[in-house]
Design goal:
By secondary structure, the chain is an alpha/beta fold. Helices cover 46% and strands 17% of the residues.
Length: 347
Amino acid sequence: MPRRAEQRPDHERGVNLQIVRCSLISALERQRKLMNILVSVIIPTRGRPAFLLRAIDSVLRQTFEQMEIVVVVDGPDEATEEALRNIRDERLRVVALPSSVGGSDARNIGVQNATGEWIAFLDDDDEWMPSKIEKQLALAAQAREPYPVIATQLIAKSPYGDFIWPRRFPGESEPLCEYLFNRKTIFAGEGLLQTSTLLTRRSLMELVPFTSGLTKHQDIDWYVRVSQVSGARFYFVPMPLVNLYVEENRATISGRSDWRFSLNWLKASRRCMSPRAYAGFICSIVASEASKQGHWRAFPELLREMFRYGKPGYMDLSLFVSRWFIRPSIRGKLRALRHSIAVKQSA
């Protein structure tokens, strides 16, 4: 005969029901508090007023309206300031710097001028989907850590097509550095965090600001340092809520190839990296930059560095070789072909 479910005593059922009710009340209370807070949106900019206006418009169209927008104009820029004067919204605040300080310090200055408990970043050439902040706050309401970092997926708009990145999220026990730098395929966008997707507490930004004066790797430098902080945890909203415009010919200081700078940054950050991630960064980033610069003499140096301090896997080595012998335009077309095949198979 089938075994009957064991009946718990009434007093035990009452205790369990009370725990469930308390948990629900606690979760609802956290969500209520989040919906009554102020989010400060930090947008550093210089010399791109048309892109900036598009970015600001995407913030003003958010379904969550309790926000302030802190635009940090990084140095003298009359065209940008003139464009900002035409925006009639009391939520907009402009911090115009007398001289350029770079992306890291511009973001830090934005945080220093912010009044919100929560901070979101937006690059001036990206844009948000209308429900981004609302969905991130809903996820933040479930976080119990003091320093949650809420990211989202994004749509990478490139000359080869539109791609949803990241394609996967970190595993339960996967170190963040390995998630970011150790790929399972040769194609970009597998493991990814991007500044315009982030929402976090101002207290974390005050504890771990962007590294002053850093001209490249400002975002990943911050990620790997935050991953070492007790009470910090990264969460992902599993839907694309940001448009990232990937323009291959758009010049930016942080996007310029400088393999020696990247290698020196890696060496200085080795304590934050696992051996696997150390090798993965060389294969996915440093080798790519050296190849773009045509510095073939870097090939043996990077191999020595990778095996001396890192533990490259099969895919890392495959990626390293592909960076030298497959042109970026070919990789872009292969990525687009792979994406189109995946879309057809899922249809």
